[in-house]
Amino acid sequence: MTKRIVHLAALLACSLVAPAALAQAAAAPATAASAPAGPSLRNEVRTPLLEAQTLIGEKKYGPAKLKVQEAAGAANKTPYEDYITTRVLLSIANAEDDAPTANKLLERILQLTANETWLKPEDALHLMHAAGITHFRTKDYAQAAVWLERNIKAGGTDEAVRDARIRSYLLAGNLQRGAELLDEEIAQSDKAGKAPSQSYLEILAQARSSLKDAAGATRVLERLVQLYPNKDHWRSLINRLWARADLATQLQLDVFRLAFQLGTHEEATDFAEYVDFAQKAGFSAEALRVFDQGASAGLMGTNDAQKKLRVKLAQEVEQDRKTLAADTAAALKKPDGLALFNLGFNMVALQQVDKGLELMEKGIAKGLAKRPADAKLRLAVAYAQAGQTEKAQQAFAAVSGPEGLDDLVRYWQWAIRKN
After folding, report:
1. Cβ neighbour number for residue 31 with a 10 Å cutoff
2. Residue 19 gets which letter from DSSP?
3. CA-based end-to-end distance of the chain
4. d(CA 204, CA 27)
């Protein structure tokens, strides 16, 4: 089966809160006209800062900085005047995406207000948020994560900040921390009785995969196909099944059947491999049906070798039809039920569904010396393909085993479940 990888960066680009929206969500730092309650400003400080505020509103940052420098040059500035001047400078740094300067200015603001009441806790959160977004916009993701983490540790609960923090850790390459935070968000949704975000699950699956955590990635993909089933999610999960080191060779054809039931096949190799597996297993009717599906999609029968294969498959199917009665009589006489079971499965593919299912059931009832659980899986699959969903679910519920069998059973149950 063809494997496809969705890179983490691509997922991040189309998921979570967009950086522009995050920037809008972060309140602008207070300027002279909207300074928090505190000691008064002298005119020689207040007047140029008010003029700077007007210039900032007009996006004239160069002249605004000159006005701030004028205020900063006032003699004998008080700590409060220094604080307000620094806040105005911070608003300019954020507007210009000057992350290094914004970083230094915010640190100074927090130092100046450490033992004062000038900066309200909610304003401090806004400033940390703004600093984080400024670093994010300049692609300094590691430092963005630092400020957003400080926001949350200081009591911030804004969903946009949590989203940006996750994104920052992942883009900074700290996949482990990003995955841990995604796990926390998903756990909170579960606790609240809500379905986790699809984008969170998709990004977590890719992060776990990048961390070489195959089991963790598989668990997330299993949640995705249950909560948000689509071909991409199913394809990724089935690729995980193919990648299992312990997947039994005898179950590989069954994986193809599941993939085609879900419609995740789209490459010529998907059809060619399925046809080859089915033909070698003795199910020529199934192989022919898949071949013709591929031909209808323009993916099979495009060269002489495949055209010859189509002729051969048709001949094999015709021979099976001619010898059906004799093969059935011979299979009924055998002590082991395998021949009878396989004959019935082939009859289902020949559209003799009722008779085929009857023979499969008789074959299992006779007893199978080798891998009887595999046969029970295929009987359930035949029920599902025949549209007998309730009967199929009952049959799947009675099947279990190692080497990928349990996974196949569970995935089939989800695939045919009626929502």
Report:
1. 22
2. H
3. 28
4. 30
